[in-house]
Design goal:
Elements: H1 11-14, H2 25-32, E1 37-38, H3 50-60, H4 72-82, E2 89-92, H5 95-106, E3 112-116, H6 121-129, E4 133-137, H7 153-159, E5 164-170, H8 182-191, E6 197-201, E7 226-231, E8 244-248, H9 250-257, H10 267-278, H11 280-303, E9 307-308, E10 315-319, H12 325-333, E11 336-337, E12 339-340, E13 349-353, H13 357-366
Parallel strand pairs: 1-11, 3-4, 3-5, 5-6, 6-7
Antiparallel strand pairs: 2-8, 7-8, 9-10, 10-13, 12-13
Helix pairs in contact: 3-10, 4-10, 5-6
The structure holds pyridoxal-5'-phosphate.
Length: 368
């Protein structure tokens, strides 16, 4: 008799499959060496602040100690930066962990979890892992004038029912790059009953500069059911250290704390994140580079006949209309790693991160 534990998995886990990392990056780095262009994971081509690296280095000397389980120092810096009380903040091993924790702590088989079609992949995963009923609301059409494939907030609000415990929004959204402005969010929040938490994932917040688009945090006081998540993985360039945070009503935070792993954020990451937050000049350089490089890359792609969707993020979604798999393979064979979107039901699209100028040129040169 062969043993297969997959048949023993609980109902929630039984229907899931493991994260698909795409290409084997360590093997690809060996194969392509310095000629690789890693444009598949929305990482920061300028890297972290030198001050964050120095803080990380210094913190390594304490590697034999457990980290501060409360992350008090980082929370204090965040609280000052965001003008909220520390009690309104929870730290995560990346914001991915916090998005999962929200569903785990607040939803179960008796509840619905609502999110947009083409919303960030973790939303569906979190709903499934908590055994909740997943409600994926159809996205806006691809020819929508301002938010192609974006969140249809009217339809999402209409999908919130008596059993809805959690709504996930991403603003801007990955992988579509789409966004909605603060006024649209305010109107949405007015329509959602207080027993449904609204989690707004602002992983790309630092990059945004569209008119009317600020942050959901503006509405935290009027709407205690609002949760805002952010990350140090994107604009702060610390994806490898895994730090994110959520801001919410103290009772939401206290509930999440019940299930949070005591030492979920390591000491090196805590130190680096606090230092990164303090380096405003570096963050400004990162955002300015991203803004100008994204505009340049989008124009170059358009000039070559490709359609890119509007973006407030550090990536572009390329709409090829036809199946994108052959182009993805073509690019990969030339050391250019981009993200195929078949898993999202967008087999005609590729997601391309804004890399360094050298990487972006390699992409353009590799195009057929
Ligand atoms: C990258 C990303 C995250 C953040 O992931 P971390 O776990 O913090 O690295 C969260 N939400 C969206 C929409 C993202 O694109």
């Amino acid at each position: 008799m062969s043993f297969d534990a997959a048949s023993l998995a609980n109902a929630a886990t039984g229907g899931l499959s493991a994260y698909d990392p795409g290409h084997d990056l360590p093997a690809s780095r060996q194969r392509f060496g310095a000629m690789i262009a890693e444009l598949g994971s929305n990482e920061n081509p300028l890297g972290p602040s030198p001050r964050a690296l120095a803080a990380a280095q210094a913190a390594l000397a304490g590697a034999h100690r457990y980290p501060d389980p409360r992350g008090g120092a980082l929370k204090a810096v965040l609280a000052r930066e965001l003008d909220v009380d520390s009690k309104c903040i929870v730290l995560g091993n990346g914001s991915h962990e916090l998005l999962m924790l929200l569903a785990q702590c607040f939803a179960d088989a008796a509840h619905a979890v609502v999110y947009s079609q083409y919303g960030f992949a973790v939303f569906a995963l979190a709903a499934a892992a908590s055994s909740a009923r997943a409600v994926a609301v159809p996205a806006l059409p691809i020819d929508h004038p301002t938010a192609p494939l974006g969140h249809d907030l009217d339809a999402i609000a209409a999908a919130v029912g008596n059993d809805t415990r959690l709504v996930y929004l991403a603003n801007p959204n990955n992988p579509t790059g789409s966004w909605f402005d603060d006024a649209a969010l305010a109107a949405f929040l007015d329509r959602v009953p207080p027993y449904a938490l609204v989690a707004v994932d602002e992983a790309y917040h630092e990059y945004v500069d569209a008119p009317g688009l600020g942050t959901a945090l503006r509405f935290a006081r009027q709407h205690p059911n609002l949760v805002v998540t952010r990350t140090f993985s994107k604009a702060y360039g610390l994806a490898g250290l895994r730090v994110g945070y959520a801001v919410a009503h103290p009772s939401v935070i206290a509930t999440l704390e019940r299930l949070r792993e005591s030492f979920n954020v390591n000491g090196v990451a805590l130190a680096a994140a606090a230092a990164a937050l303090d380096d405003r000049d570096h963050r400004a350089r990162v955002c300015e580079f991203n803004r100008s490089e994204r505009a340049w890359l989008a124009a170059e792609l358009t000039r070559r006949g490709y359609r890119t969707l509007p973006s407030q993020t550090n990536f572009l979604l390329l709409d090829l209309v036809r199946n994108a798999a052959p182009l993805e393979r073509h690019l990969f064979e030339r050391g250019v790693i981009v993200r195929p979107m078949g898993g999202y039901g967008l087999a005609h699209a590729l997601r391309i991160s804004i890399g360094s100028r050298a990487e972006n040129l390699r992409l353009l040169e590799a195009l057929p």
